[in-house]
Design a protein that fits this description.
CATH topology of the largest domain: Quinone Oxidoreductase, Chain A, domain 1
Number of domains: 2
Low-confidence stretches: none
Shape: globular
Helix content: 10-25%
Radius of gyration: 20 Å
Bound molecules: NADP nicotinamide-adenine-dinucleotide phosphate, zinc ion
GO molecular function: oxidoreductase activity, acting on the CH-OH group of donors, NAD or NADP as acceptor; zinc ion binding
Number of helices: 11
Protein name: Cinnamyl alcohol dehydrogenase 9
Cofactor: Zn(2+)
Keywords: Metal-binding, Oxidoreductase, Zinc
CATH class of the largest domain: Alpha Beta
Structural class: alpha/beta
InterPro entries: ADH-like_C, ADH-like_N, ADH_Zn_CS, CAD-like, ER, GroES-like_sf, NAD(P)-bd_dom_sf
CATH superfamily of the largest domain: Medium-chain alcohol dehydrogenases, catalytic domain
Distance between the termini: 27 Å
Largest sheet: 7 strands, mixed
Mean pLDDT: 97
CATH architecture of the largest domain: Alpha-Beta Complex
Oligomer: single chain
Amino acid sequence: MAKAPEDEHPQKTFGWAARDSSGNLSPFHFSRRENGDDDVAIKILYCGVCHTDLHAVKNEWGVTRYPVVPGHEIVGIVTKLGNNVKKFNVGDRVGVGVMVGSCRSCEYCNQDMENYCPKLIFTYDSIYHDGTKNYGGYSDMIVVDQFFVVRFPDSLPSDAGAPLLCAGITVYSPMKYYGMTEPGKHLGVVGLGGVGHVAVKIGKAFGLKITVISTSPSKEAEAIGKLGADSFLVSTDPAKMKASFGTMDYIIDTVSAFHAIAPLLTLLKPNGKLVTLGLPAKPLELHSHLLVLGRKLVGGSDIGGMKETQEMLDFCAKHNITADVEVIKMDEINTAMDRLAKSDVRYRFVIDVANSLSK
Ligand SMILES: NC(=O)c1ccc[n+]([C@@H]2O[C@H](COP(=O)([O-])OP(=O)(O)OC[C@H]3O[C@@H](n4cnc5c(N)ncnc54)[C@H](OP(=O)(O)O)[C@@H]3O)[C@@H](O)[C@H]2O)c1
Ligand SMILES: [Zn+2]
Ligand SMILES: [Zn+2]
């Protein structure tokens, strides 16, 4: 018989897990593996709440294996090192993002694209090399192979910096890969949530002109006044959408739910590119006419490799980019998830794990 999560490994761990598709999270005792030679043990300080966590706890993609401890925007302190670990010291502040393992030898791993490795292992709800299940950052500690741990720049705060580990790399990588960084070009950011608001900040650091495309008129003042966007377009206003036809060079779509992309494609100039990052459960509809007439491109992108994740953190440190966060206690997570489902967060919840996770 399989061992209970609490008895599987030697390091006793405590976190919050969802047990079924209600998505309700509650206290959960489990365990982490003993440090191997390449492993780093990390005391978790903060963990961001990504919409992917919400998709997962509610089993919106139909693949969740309960119990699930979510969390893949982790900042913590190194507490223990395996024998081969030379790049970190005990006491260092480090980050862990969306992945904790890959094959390390395929053509993607060999080109610093572990995120596209066919054997990619996610931080939670994924099976590790040893055959046991991974649990994420809504917990007191984690053990991670040093290759998948990043140095956290001194100037970045642990709470507002944590979301960069997913939201940050999710927008930085496609902007570079798809050539969406030419200063002065016009970027539309669809959905002003956790990923979207970081896209605005990183886009500004690349020198782009940015229009936020949103369903929430109440976000306009902050988008322009606080986040630095140049303009704001309410996507449910047909007249304003029409007035913006053919004005954008690039669009980053971060919407978490099914939505029409045809109106977004009309906003692009000829040769424009739309990169979709959201992961709605229901497929989007692609209108080929809108691509053909104007030679437009639609692409996707999934986080980024480890080398690029470190590069992104250093870039954000240099440009003083952090997320705008609402810091919550662990026992406020269910209310936070309800608010996240309603796009009611400015703009990322981050759990103060170290100060609020009490057994
Ligand atoms: N590709 C990747 O590597 C990657 C990484 C992280 C997350 N994701 C995915 O990206 C999506 C966004 O994540 P997030 O954490 O940024 O979520 P989020 O904070 O909930 O933001 C999503 C935003 O989308 C807009 N939105 C929500 N429902 C909508 C609807 N029905 N129609 C139009 N707009 C709607 C809202 O913005 P407005 O209020 O401004 O309209 C909302 O704030 C999720 O699906 C997540 O799983 C992908
Ligand atoms: Zn995420
Ligand atoms: Zn690989």
